[in-house]
Amino acid sequence: MTVPDRTAHPGAEPAYSVVVPTVGRPELPRALRPLLAGADPAPAEIVVVDDRPAPGPPPPGTGHPAVRVLRSGGRGPACARDLGWRATRAPWVVFLDDDVVPDPDWCAALAADLAGAGDHVGGVQGRIEVPPPPGRRPTDAERGTLGLAGAAWITADMAYRRSALEAVDGFDRRFRRAYREDTDIALRVLDAGFTLVRGRRRCVHPVRDAGLWRSVAAQAGNADDVLMRRLHGRGWRDRVAEPPGRFRRHVAATAALGGAVAAGALAAAASSAADRRAAARRAADRRAHTAGLAVALLLLRSVSRTAALTAAATHPAARTTPRRAAGTAATAPAALAAPLILVLAAAALLLRPRRSPADADPAQAPTARRPLTGTRSAGRAAGAAASPRGRPVPGNRTARAAAALSVRALPAPAAAAAAAAAA
């Protein structure tokens, strides 16, 4: 069936489709309810994209005949949204998060937003309200959610003209987390000559329950900022009216983790007792420096507490990594003349794969270029190995992965990607 493009008739209600990526949250039925309960005008299509990694029962609330469910296999919200809009036909595509609560009159307000959009408008953003957690300070992850209320062009509630999505070839699937993929596509739509405006429709975005470790994982978003800078230049934050980031201070607090892990690995893989003692001293110096830096940054309140916690993880990481490295070197094929240093990196680092999602080059990580400058000259191989879902390669597969990385001779220095180990 062909969906009529009612935008060609002034005053008409434009046809629109709704795409909702989900990880199966129980709030999904609440997000869909205003779209199904006698909505006027009703969406031409409702597509829910199930982004859970493993097959399972249908997402909650998707049993209605008006809802179509697709699967994206756990590849992240950018991929899920990209798959969803390409499966629709209406001239406008509205993206919603699976945990937002649209106002009861959301559909009518959306229709007014779209009807008022001129031909030059490529996207219309809804207004997001985020209630703060009651009675306590928000965690780092919750503070990020609170920032959605003033953020520009977020896909928690964002309508794009189909022609704008086609002009930029949709979402960049390298963004694996729910972070920055919406900013990236907005900047590309602007670069294509469209304008973006704010509408009047409203949604409430709850602050999800997020504990301390979720906040640690949220620090991995710095890698997305690195990709944004590479794609859109230094001034990308100004274009979306966002204050300067804390990336430099985060690196100052966490870069030492990669150095300490690397120093510990060198201590285990060193060929002589003297080398091991020297490497151990370097690791201890790095740990002491990191602890002092973390305390100073906390006292100055210039870095989030979990960035400092990530840095504090240096000490246990530097103790455990040598055993892992030693085991890897001991089981590596005899054909490899040099000891191996293996740094297990998560795919969430947003490193561009060299051959597959499990073959990311850690030399692209911001903290990877300096800590192991002498690694290759010392005759040691360094690399990263991860499973397709970004988890460290387990058990006896580690040696095979390390050997493959060595044979491919990753660019030097290719280490310190373990700075994202806390993610």
Automatic annotation (TrEMBL):
All residue ranges annotated as the Glycosyltransferase 2-like domain in the record: 17-132
Transmembrane segments: 251-270, 291-312, 332-351
Entry EC no(s): 2.4.-.-
EC top class named in words: transferase
Keyword Transferase included in the entry's annotation: yes
Cited SUPFAM superfamilies: Nucleotide-diphospho-sugar transferases
Entry's family note: Belongs to the glycosyltransferase 2 family.
Protein name: Glycosyltransferase
